[in-house]
Design brief:
The structure holds 3 protein chains of 3 kinds. Chain A is 33% helix and 16% strand. By secondary structure, chain A is of the alpha+beta class. Chain A folds into 2 domains: 3-78, Beta-grasp domain (Ubiquitin-like (UB roll), Roll), CATH 3.10.20; 87-155, DNA polymerase, domain 1 (Orthogonal Bundle), CATH 1.10.150. Chain A has a 5-stranded mixed sheet, covered by helices on one side. In chain A, helix 2 packs across helix 5 (141-155) and helix 3 (104-117) crosses helix 5. By secondary structure, chain B is an alpha+beta fold. Chain B has a 7-stranded antiparallel sheet with strand order 1-7-6-5-4-3-2. Chain C has 3 domains: 32-137, Alpha-Beta Complex (Aldehyde Oxidoreductase, domain 3), CATH 3.90.1170; 295-404 and 420-471 and 636-787, 2-Layer Sandwich (Aldehyde Oxidoreductase, domain 4); 474-632, Aldehyde oxidase/xanthine dehydrogenase, molybdopterin binding domain (Aldehyde Oxidoreductase, domain 4), CATH 3.30.365. Chain C is 27% helix and 23% strand. In chain C, helix 15 packs across helix 16. The model of chain C has no long low-confidence stretch (mean pLDDT 96). The chains are: A alpha+beta, B alpha+beta, C alpha+beta. Chains A and C meet through helix 2, helix 3, helix 4 and helix 5 of A and helix 1 and helix 17 of C.
């Protein structure tokens, strides 16, 4: 466990040793027990492991844990704020944007990144932004609607 | 995976044969092989380095030169095993005399890949191999030209 | 009475998933757990000459390396759950499927060794160091070629690689005579290519043996925990069923591929006792591609004959079905009883014969994948009828109206008996197609199509399908070769305080059972939905169950819940009658209370529940408690149907196909939760469209799966699909208490041929009389079809 790293995950600082080859996703799941971030492939294609690192959506299977040293990481577990759901979480529930739930954390992390940069995306822009996230259950139809729901909600905060 | 092609060299068939029997040259014209080490008559240990997308690895394997019919034809039989997959290949080489100063080399081979390397990116490998071979023959041609001049 | 049924109640299960608290098998960590990794064959067909584990055993963290020879002879291979016999009555060929190969590998990915180490990375490292010496043999991957003379043999005891041959329907000579008299015959040779289910959660299993209780627990990503327990205990490991608990926790999608009992499940269970520690195995995506049972893979020739009016007079289908290297759990049923039996479609075809040869090949096993057999049957029928319309210069919708079976409700009018062994429950087929045409704006579309002149070809494709689901009556499936019953089990346990725990043998892995079932319970019992909890997926808490597949959860599992509720209310009425000093016959139950008819005397459900558990003032001779289970065995399959329409635009220069619109009108019987049903349809559509346009395995001639990764296998993505336009009609199922038919597979069954038909229509109308474009319809294939 040669490399000491310090990573702030969902606002909490974690320090520990990792192997040089440990992927960030494995660090989150195995070392920190944050199993909300999922692994769906081994070619960085499916997006199930998408998280935010220093405010940007990244696939945590393409980042080594050591590369995250000193970074701020947000995972699905950190989306809700003091028990109240993030608008994207609300959108997925209201619009039935999930079925089995496995791709959902990655989808939501990608979507929040999209909405940060493009608060009012068109359907085409949403579909394009989701290109790197696979869902096998929903046919994406309700995921698009969930993101539209969140976009609307975030623009007119209650 | 199939590799095939023809290249013409400005040397006689006999001279071309001699070039090709030189391990260094043989290493150069065999797709994916970067080094040959003689271990017995017509038998070599090979080292290959391959990188396709996320698939990257060094192969070590065996290469036999077989069915030698000097200076007309021979075949290369290869077996390479690695963590990312294995390759079994046979490439038939035919040398045809065009005239006293020119000969052509026709190659025709098939590689069976297995393991990770077979299911990730194999679709593009054949095209890549053919391109590499063409480049290799061009440089072999240059090499021959240089030898002829000196 | 109906506060919940028919409403789009938001899903109760969502909260844990959107907050990252779902618990999938790979999320579970047990004390002292070790990790397993498989050494798998890189060759499709080879003799294992030797396995050397010396170097690997010395790698850091390695606990044990198991090879085939380590597994006791007493442990049998993975069994098959369905038997189909040869035409001549001989039993199908059923070669052994060992947990780890001993002598011969038969497909790329066959398990050769299992490395157990302290971490997954260590197990993987050590697996790389296991030396296996193989003698490579020739392989065969195509089901048709496999049956030809000289083909490489997969199993010594299955000559010609034939598992069985099978036939259904009218005698061939009768069909041939009708075909000969036909005014027009449409014939097509085509394949229904192999696809990979690709649940986004890779399969995972944890075996745990508890010495204190002499009990095994298997956590596994499965669609049916009880069936896994039954198969594993009775047929593989020979351990007593009551000493095994199987838990299917949250499961990240199945689509069929997680129905089956896999070797990995039995291996981690058995090894956990041998090695004295819990063992987890989770597949890489790469392993999923090689070992999750695949779907489809039929090679067919079919003919459809018409009279001069356009009425179908005969259908003859010949199919070669690929079973892969080993028989998976339900594999033999898929190309036969789930395929041949659907050849009637929605049409009155009087003469039908279907002939199937099922072959072993050196490929991954093929079994049920969303729709299982029914998509293949629908593809065959719907491609033929659309092509026939083009050939006969008739309107494809008109041709269908002409041939539809007239409406029947299954109550006043009898069910429709087909030429291929089924009796449809209820059907009304005109309205689905009419509604679809309306949504398309059909006349307008045809005008637009005729006027198109921008280098793009517009096309429209239809598919009107029927499926048989809600499987099914045990006696019927037993007669057809099933080695299990196909009933479902439910237990409704009323707690003393009137809260209700419902245990169901159906398993939810995305379908929303925790919500839909709760809606039924709340409405039937007249209580709030928050007072109901649905429990599933654990063989120790749920009495028994057959699991979730074949769109059966609601029709069969939901009906079992209803029957349990009936028992609860019947007993509740006796208690209520006692408390009200009235006769049970004089009571009525509504809104959570029993009332003496014509009076305001009533007692609440909560009071009755409490009395049942505190039986101080209680009917004489009545047992305390309020807890009932029911085994529901349906009277028939259910038969959802629908009309799907695809509109595509084909680029004449490049062959690129753009799916512009997709319209689906489905009839799945009564609907409990419209939002969830819509979601099921959407997902099915994406998978069906995926097969038409993007997906398909490619095996090379040595048996290598050359697109075994997400870099190479094309999954449908968000920007490949349009928003779907869907609607439905409602024709209730006459034989189950909910009137429901099932919605899980409909989208996937109807959509594939609609998309291909649309491309053929576009090409045909553009002057290219192309009969077929093989799926997936890549630009290259479409272009080639236009330019040949």
């Amino acid at each position: 466990m040669g490399n000491m790293i310090t990573v702030t995950v969902n606002g909490k600082e974690h320090s520990g040793g990792v192997e040089g080859r440990t992927l960030l996703v494995d660090y989150l799941r195995e070392h920190l027990g944050l199993t909300g971030t999922h692994i769906g492939c081994d070619t960085s294609s499916c997006g199930a492991c998408t998280i935010h690192m220093d405010g940007k959506a990244v696939k945590s299977c393409t980042v080594l844990a050591v590369q995250a040293d000193g970074s701020e990481v947000t995972t699905v577990e950190g989306l809700a704020n003091n028990g109240s759901l993030h608008p994207i979480q609300e959108g997925f529930k209201e619009e039935h944007g999930l079925q089995c739930g496995f791709c959902t954390p990655g989808m939501m992390m990608t979507a929040t990144d999209l909405l940060k940069n493009n608060p009012n995306p068109t359907e085409d822009e949403i579909r394009h932004a989701l290109e790197g996230n696979f869902c096998r259950c929903t046919g994406y139809h309700n995921i698009v609607k969930s993101i539209q729901y969140a976009a609307k909600k975030m623009q007119s905060p209650a | 995976m199939i590799v095939e092609g023809t290249h013409t060299f400005h040397v006689s068939a006999e001279q071309l044969w001699n070039y090709l029997m030189d391990p260094e040259v043989l290493a150069k014209i065999t797709p994916g092989v970067s080094q040959l080490e003689l271990v017995g008559e017509d038998q070599y240990k090979t080292v290959s380095k391959i990188k396709i997308g996320p698939v990257k690895g060094a192969f070590t394997g065996k290469l036999h030169v077989i069915d030698k019919d000097q200076p007309h034809s021979f075949a290369i039989q290869m077996e390479q095993l690695s963590k990312i997959g294995n390759a079994h290949a046979r490439v038939d080489m035919a040398i045809k005399t065009i005239d006293a100063q020119n000969a052509s080399l026709e190659f025709n081979g098939k590689a069976n890949l297995s393991g990770l390397i077979a299911r990730t990116g194999q679709r593009v490998l054949s095209g890549v191999a053919n391109v590499i071979i063409k480049e290799v023959f061009s440089s072999l041609e240059e090499h021959i030209e240089e030898q002829n001049i000196t | 009475m109906t506060n919940y049924i028919g409403k789009s109640v938001k899903r109760v299960e969502d909260k844990r998933f959107i907050t990252g608290q779902g618990k999938y098998t790979d999320d579970i960590k047990l004390n002292g757990m070790m990790y397993g990794y498989f050494v798998r064959s890189p060759y499709a067909h080879a003799i294992v000459k030797s396995i050397n584990i010396d170097r690997a055993s010395k790698m850091p963290g390695v606990n044990k390396i198991l090879v085939g020879a380590d597994i006791p002879e007493a442990i049998a291979g993975v069994p098959c759950g369905w038997q189909v016999d040869f035409k001549n009555g001989d039993t199908m060929k059923e070669p052994p499927h060992p947990l780890l190969v001993r002598k011969k590998v038969r497909h790329v990915g066959d398990g050769v060794a299992f490395v157990v180490a302290e971490t997954r990375a260590q197990a993987k490292d050590a697996a790389d160091e296991v030396d296996v010496d193989y003698e490579i043999l020739d392989a065969v991957t195509c089901p048709k070629k496999a049956t030809e003379e000289g083909a490489a043999q997969v199993h010594e005891d299955a000559p010609g690689n034939l598992c069985f041959d099978w036939e259904l329907g009218n005698p061939k000579d009768e069909v041939a005579a009708a075909m000969a008299a036909a005014a027009h015959v449409t014939e097509l040779d085509f394949s229904n290519q192999r696809v990979v289910p690709n649940a986004i959660e890779p399969r995972s299993a944890i075996g745990h043996y508890d010495t204190a209780y002499d009990k095994y627990t298997l956590y596994t990503s499965t669609q049916n925990p009880h069936l896994i327990r039954l198969l594993m205990c009775a047929f593989v490991l020979g351990i007593p069923e009551h000493k095994v608990r199987v838990i299917g926790p949250d499961v990240g999608g199945g689509f069929g591929s997680k129905i089956f009992h896999y070797a990995e499940e039995a291996l981690v269970t058995w090894a956990s006792k041998e090695l004295g520690c819990p063992i987890k195995w989770t597949a890489d995506r790469s392993e999923s591609f090689l070992t999750d049972a695949h779907g489809r893979d039929h090679v067919s020739n079919a003919k459809m004959g018409f009279d001069s009016e356009g009425k179908i007079v005969a259908l003859q289908a010949y199919t070669y079905a690929n079973l892969g290297a080993y028989l998976s759990t339900f594999a033999p049923a898929v190309p036969t009883y789930l395929h041949g039996t659907l050849m009637q479609g929605l049409y009155t075809t009087p003469k039908i014969n279907v002939d199937v040869k099922a072959a072993f090949t050196h490929t991954c096993a093929v079994d049920a994948y969303r729709g299982a057999g029914r998509p293949e049957a629908t593809y065959l029928l719907e491609r033929l009828i659309d092509l026939a319309a083009l050939e006969m210069d008739m309107d494809p919708a008109e041709l269908r109206f002409k041939n539809f079976i007239p409406a029947f409700d299954g109550v006043e009018q009898e069910g429709y008996t087909t030429q291929v062994a089924l009796q449809y429950d209820s059907g009304n087929y005109d309205p689905v197609l009419k509604r679809a045409l309306e949504m398309v704006g059909y006349e307008e579309f045809r005008k637009e199509q005729a006027a198109q002149s921008n280098g793009k070809l517009l096309g429209i494709g239809f598919s009107t399908y029927i499926e048989a689901c809600g499987i099914a009556p045990s006696a019927v499936v037993g007669a057809l070769g099933a080695r299990a019953g196909l009933f479902e089990v439910a237990q409704v346990r009323v707690q003393p305080t009137g809260k209700v725990s419902v245990f169901t043998g159906a398993h939810s892995h995305g379908q929303g059972h925790e919500t839909t079932f709760a809606q039924i319970v709340a409405d039937r019992m007249g209580i709030g939905i928050d007072d109901v909890e649905i429990i599933h997926g654990d063989s120790d808490s749920v009495a028994f169950g057959m699991g979730t597949y074949g769109s059966r959860s609601l029709a069969v599992g939901g009906s079992a819940i209803v029957n349990s509720i009936d028992k609860v209310l019947e007993k509740g009425a006796k208690i209520a009658a006692h408390l009200l000093e009235a006769s049970a016959d004089d009571l009525e139950y509504a809104e959570g209370k029993w009332t003496v008819k014509g009076t305001d005397k009533s007692v609440s459900f909560g009071d009755v529940s409490l009395t049942a558990y505190v039986p101080h003032n209680y009917p004489e001779g009545l047992e305390p408690g309020l807890d009932f289970n029911a085994f529901y065995d349906p009277a028939n399959f259910t038969y959802p149907f629908g009309a799907h329409v695809a509109i595509v635009e084909v680029d004449k220069e490049t062959g690129e196909v753009k799916l512009k619109r997709f319209i689906a009108v489905d009839d799945v019987g009564n609907v409990i939760n419209p939002m969830i049903v819509d979601g099921q349809i959407h997902g099915g559509l994406a998978q069906g469209i995926g097969q038409a346009m993007h997906e398909g395995t490619v095996y090379d001639e040595t048996g290598q799966l050359i697109n075994g990764s997400y870099m190479d296998y094309c999954m449908p993505r968000a920007d490949d699909l349009p928003s779907f336009e869907i609607d439905r009609t409602v024709t209730p199922c006459p034989h189950n208490p909910l009137g429901v038919k099932g919605a899980g597979e409909a989208g996937c069954i109807g959509s594939t041929p609609a998309v291909v038909n649309a491309v053929i229509d576009a090409l045909w109308k553009g002057g290219f009389k192309v009969k077929d474009v093989p799926m997936p319809m890549t630009p290259e294939r479409v272009w080639t079809a236009m330019n040949n």
